[in-house]
Backbone:
């Protein structure tokens, strides 16, 4: 098989991890009799490149794949595709090793670019978070009954919570004692628990961003709430306490049967 140029390498970088094309070279396929041994050769060759040990298969790696690998490795040695080396096996199919190295380098470069983009995005978002903070009251509705599933309120500096006049005097006194100058405040009634506490402007901005309409699980989850504001990841919908069917241990199941823990104290 030819070594292929950069354009060939870019066709299927995911093949590095799967090993689907690892050994299509030097007649190795014709010498390996069983499909299981060939599959092991492809996978191990690809992983050796990705794990920065090109052409070497440690015994501990084979042990991690489960039983039966010793017999397959022996078959590959008999076919002159592998040979025994200290603490493992050396892959003799150099064309396959070289191709996997090329693809591993391609993947590494792509991963580095993705990581750099994520860092730049997170940095930019962190700079904007305080500016995005805004007072709000959000009540995601239960997809099963239409009742409020949870309630999230951000109270701005110098402001009072909604329905302040209905708060007991003791609760009002406690709130006022906890407030600092310029302090944001989060009041949250979750599916199974409730809490209120001061938050920094950056966190207030992150929460405000997470609850911009339309509400979706992926966005709401960035708020970092333990119960994801009642949202089910699989349904992409919120449910109330009753329709989460919360157990005594704080674990719930939505109407579709998807489960999650809703009480951080358990």
Residues:
């Amino acid at each position: 098989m030819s070594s292929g140029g950069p354009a060939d390498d870019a066709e299927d970088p995911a093949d590095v991890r799967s090993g689907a094309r690892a050994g299509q070279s030097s007649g190795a396929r014709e010498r390996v009799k069983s499909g299981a041994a060939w599959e092991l050769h492809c996978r191990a060759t690809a992983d050796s490149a990705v794990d920065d040990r090109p052409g070497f298969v440690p015994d501990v790696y084979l042990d991690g794949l489960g039983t039966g690998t010793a017999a397959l490795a022996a078959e590959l040695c008999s076919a002159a595709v592998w040979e025994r080396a200290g603490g493992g096996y050396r892959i003799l199919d150099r064309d396959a090793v070289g191709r996997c190295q090329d693809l591993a380098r391609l993947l590494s470069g792509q991963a580095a670019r993705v990581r750099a983009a994520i860092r730049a995005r997170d940095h930019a978002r962190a700079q904007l978070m305080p500016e995005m903070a805004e007072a709000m009251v959000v009540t995601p509705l239960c997809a099963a009954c239409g009742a409020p599933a949870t309630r999230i309120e951000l109270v701005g500096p110098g402001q009072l919570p909604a329905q302040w006049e209905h708060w007991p005097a003791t609760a009002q006194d406690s709130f006022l004692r906890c407030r600092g100058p310029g302090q944001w405040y989060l009041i949250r009634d979750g599916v199974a628990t409730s809490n209120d506490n001061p938050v920094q402007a950056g966190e207030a901005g992150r929460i405000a961003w997470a609850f911009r309409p339309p509400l979706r699980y992926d966005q709401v989850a960035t708020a970092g709430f333990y119960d994801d504001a009642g949202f089910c990841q699989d349904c992409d919908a919120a449910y109330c306490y009753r329709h989460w069917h919360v157990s005594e241990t704080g674990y719930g199941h939505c109407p579709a049967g998807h489960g999650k823990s809703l009480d951080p104290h358990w």
Notes: DSSP finds eleven helices and eleven strands in the chain. The first strand starts at residue 56 and ends at 58.
